[in-house]
């Protein structure tokens, strides 16, 4: 058992004030069989009323609007979680499995990905965790971590063709490969100790349990990972979704700083 | 003695009035918006009283099953677990929206307004061609045409016992009220340039619902409000929306949408507004799932289907693929993702090369297509430059679901003006007729 404190801060500066904006945030630690939330506080600037809810994947979210001109929008979420088990496992809930074998706008494989999978499919171990581990190691070797060459809307096949990207791309490609190998898999958002931003990893299904694999780091997920939420792909569980109304020529900058400290 | 052709002499006058009322059909072609008149043919389709009761029973049964299916898919998924429908046809379908998982619409109704397209074969049997559960349009056309016909030839309706079709507004209002969770009823239109704008304004006028566009609605906290011009707010309880799922809410669906209402789906999720039709219905009306509707009827209702599908094959199944390839020239092939008469090809109309290309595609993506026997359906007479000629026609029946499904005793009969065409969609330039259901 281990306690982790977190401080997630996301700030958007607009080059000119925008007249209004809407936001949906999913940057709150999940409560599940592996992780317990001890405290969690949210501050949004400019100060505004917001609603709480859960999306269809069970992720906690808040949504609302800033209905006056503003030139910056930020959210800070702080708190503490307790990680109950070292090995990363959460239980499969009823009816959810079907969602993670199909669909996901960012997960459509192309011929290139299929061919790549076929080239190794004969070498794959039968055992599910070993099979996934094999695919993870191979992806880690073949793929190059590089910021700025992909964005939030890059799909698996595009990133795969470039052979480089960030945690989102690693995770998407891995999910597609797992599905091709007959393993249901899903996309996870959260935080990782030592990482300065939000992070993404993958959960694969084995014996009715979700097992976490941090593909970007080529490791099983540990008790240093705080989970926010999950979905089929990044589009299902974006940490921040927003639209703003304003005159043309505005630019938007996203700055995400995360600090985790062990107690 | 009035007969079914009694209105023909008034045809021109009625079409002029329809044009003046703005009964048009707008279509996008090559990226430009063109509005064209929706030509009205004055010879009605006539359906005998008994025949319509039979249709009515079949349509109610079908819509009941489709609603149960939608509810099942977005919650327990029992029909998949029981192996009646392969999961690929649901969860990989573009019409399935994971955002709707676990969201139960008001009163559990998904398809409030269902437009079921049928044809009558030369064998005298009716066949279902497709189900339209994503806010089907077209009811206003026979409504207004009837109004004008009645005005120009009242005696015809005195002598022939035609069931009154003015009650559509009443059925629609009842449907809106039934699911209303507190507040006003509104009809949400994308605006003037939508192909069915005439219908939106007409139905708003007839039902007393407010006709609104996206910018007049806003989400405040957990509720949806209509903002009046003088700065007042009224809570909205039902939205009869004429905007497709993906454009309805940029925060939950297509972020590029400018006509939607940010967060409206979050309010739906909390049960604080009813949407007609519900979001996510596409999973029940794509051409792939059509094949399974008779199975749904048996599965959910324990009844034999009253109305038949056109004989359909799924190349997804090996046996059906074999049949499709062996009988290619007798079949019509449809891309499950397309609508409005697009993506439909007839086996016997392809060149050798086209056929070879198509078969390659079919083998590569079998899930994408269905194959159907070409139904030789009955022609209806229309007036074409003063001559009475026979043309292909279908019938869109409207089924409204409040506490029970209700079938409107009328419908939109569409016909092809081209003598060689089987495609009657208004987006392909066809015309329409009134549908007379005889009351005795």
What does this structure look like?
- The complex is a heterodimer of chains A (263) and B (440).
- Helix content of chain A is 18%, strand content 44%.
- With 263 residues, chain A is of the alpha+beta class.
- Chain A has 2 domains: 2-84 and 240-262, Immunoglobulin-like, CATH 2.60.40; 89-233, C8orf32 fold (Roll).
- In chain A, the strands form 4 sheets. In chain A, strands 7, 10, 11, 12, 13 and 14 form a 6-stranded antiparallel sheet that branches.
- In chain A, α2 (128-142) packs across α4 (167-180) and α3 (156-162) packs across α4.
- In chain B, strands 3, 4, 5, 12, 17, 18, 19, 20 and 21 form a 9-stranded mixed sheet that branches. In chain B, strands 6, 7, 8, 9, 10 and 11 form a 6-stranded mixed sheet that branches. A 4-stranded antiparallel sheet of chain B has the order 13-16-14-15.
- Chain B is globular and about 60 Å long.
- Chain B has helices spanning 11-21, 49-73, 78-81, 88-91, 140-152, 154-159, 168-179, 197-207, 245-248, 264-269, 282-285, 287-290, 293-301, 318-326, 352-364, and strands spanning 24-29, 32-37, 40-47, 113-120, 126-132, 184-188, 210-212, 217-220, 223-227, 233-241, 274-276, 308-309, 312-313, 331-335, 344-346, 369-373, 379-384, 387-401, 405-407, 412-415, 431-437.
- In chain B, α2 (49-73) crosses α13 (293-301).
- In chain B, a hairpin with a 3-residue loop joins β18 (387-401) and β19.
- The model of chain B has no long low-confidence stretch (mean pLDDT 92).
- Classes of the chains: A alpha+beta (263), B alpha+beta (440).
- At the A-B interface, loops of A face α4 of B.
């Amino acid at each position: 058992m281990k306690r982790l404190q977190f401080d997630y801060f996301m700030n958007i500066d607009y080059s000119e004030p925008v007249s209004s904006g809407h936001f949906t945030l999913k940057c709150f630690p999940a409560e599940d069989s592996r992780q317990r939330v001890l405290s969690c506080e949210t501050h949004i600037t400019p100060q505004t009323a917001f609603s709480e809810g859960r999306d269809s994947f069970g992720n906690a979210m808040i949504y609302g609007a800033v209905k006056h001109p503003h030139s910056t929008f930020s959210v800070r979420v702080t708190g503490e979680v307790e990680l109950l088990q070292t090995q990363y496992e959460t239980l499969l809930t009823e009816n959810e499995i079907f969602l993670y074998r199909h669909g996901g706008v960012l997960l459509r494989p192309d011929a290139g990905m299929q061919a790549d999978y076929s080239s190794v499919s004969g070498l794959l171990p039968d055992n599910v965790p070993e099979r996934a581990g094999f695919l993870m190691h191979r992806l880690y070797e073949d793929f190059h971590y590089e910021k700025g060459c992909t964005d939030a809307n890059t799909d698996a096949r595009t990133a795969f063709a470039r052979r480089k990207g960030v945690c989102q791309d690693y995770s998407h490609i891995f999910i597609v490969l797992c599905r091709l190998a007959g393993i249901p898999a899903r996309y996870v958002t959260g935080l990782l100790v030592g990482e300065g931003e939000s992070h993404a990893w993958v959960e694969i299904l084995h014996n009715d349990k979700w097992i976490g694999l941090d593909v970007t780091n080529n490791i099983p997920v540990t008790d240093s990972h705080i989970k926010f939420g999950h979905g089929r792909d990044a589009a299902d569980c974006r940490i921040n979704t927003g639209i703003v109304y304003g005159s043309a020529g505005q630019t938007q900058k996203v700055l995400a700083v995360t600090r985790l400290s062990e107690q | 003695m009035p007969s079914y052709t009694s209105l023909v002499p008034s045809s021109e006058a009625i079409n002029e009035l329809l044009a003046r009322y703005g009964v048009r059909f707008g279509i996008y072609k090559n990226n430009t918006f063109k509005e064209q008149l929706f030509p009205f043919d004055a010879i009605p389709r006539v359906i005998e009283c008994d025949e319509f009761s039979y249709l009515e029973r079949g349509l109610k049964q079908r819509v009941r099953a489709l609603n149960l299916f939608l509810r099942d898919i977005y919650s327990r998924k029992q029909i998949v677990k029981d192996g009646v429908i392969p999961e690929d046809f649901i969860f990989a379908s573009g019409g399935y929206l994971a955002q709707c998982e676990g969201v139960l619409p008001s009163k559990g109704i998904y398809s409030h307004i269902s437009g079921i397209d049928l044809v009558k074969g030369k064998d005298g049997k009716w066949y279902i061609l497709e189900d339209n559960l994503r806010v089907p349009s077209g009811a206003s056309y026979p409504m207004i045409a009837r109004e004008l016909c009645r005005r120009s030839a009242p005696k015809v309706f005195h002598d022939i016992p035609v069931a009154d079709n003015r009650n559509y507004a009443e059925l629609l209002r009842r449907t809106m009220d039934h699911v209303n969770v507190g507040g006003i009823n509104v009809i949400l239109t994308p605006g003037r340039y939508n192909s069915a704008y005439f219908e939106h304004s007409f139905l708003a006028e007839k039902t007393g619902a407010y006709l609104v566009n996206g910018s007049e609605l806003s989400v405040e906290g957990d509720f949806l409000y209509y903002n009046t011009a003088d700065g007042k707010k009224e809570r909205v309880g039902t939205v009869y929306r004429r905007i497709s799922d993906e454009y309805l809410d940029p925060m939950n669906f297509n972020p590029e949408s400018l006509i939607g209402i940010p967060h409206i789906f979050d309010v739906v999720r909390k049960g604080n507004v009813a949407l007609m039709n519900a979001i996510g219905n596409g999973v029940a009306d794509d051409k792939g799932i059509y094949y399974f509707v008779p199975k749904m009827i048996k599965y959910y209702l324990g009844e034999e289907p009253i109305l038949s599908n056109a004989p359909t094959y799924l190349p997804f199944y090996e046996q059906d693929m074999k049949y499709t390839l062996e009988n290619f020239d007798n079949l019509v092939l449809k891309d499950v993702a397309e609508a409005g008469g697009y993506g439909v090809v007839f086996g016997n109309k392809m060149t050798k090369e086209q056929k070879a290309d198509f078969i390659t595609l079919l083998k590569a993506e079998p899930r994408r297509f269905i194959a159907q026997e070409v139904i030789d359906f009955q022609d209806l007479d229309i007036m074409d430059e003063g001559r009475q000629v026979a043309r292909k026609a279908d019938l869109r029946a409207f089924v409204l679901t409040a506490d029970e499904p209700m079938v409107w005793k009328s419908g939109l009969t569409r016909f092809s003006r081209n003598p060689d065409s089987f495609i009657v969609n208004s987006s392909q330039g066809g015309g329409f007729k009134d549908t007379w259901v005889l009351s005795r």
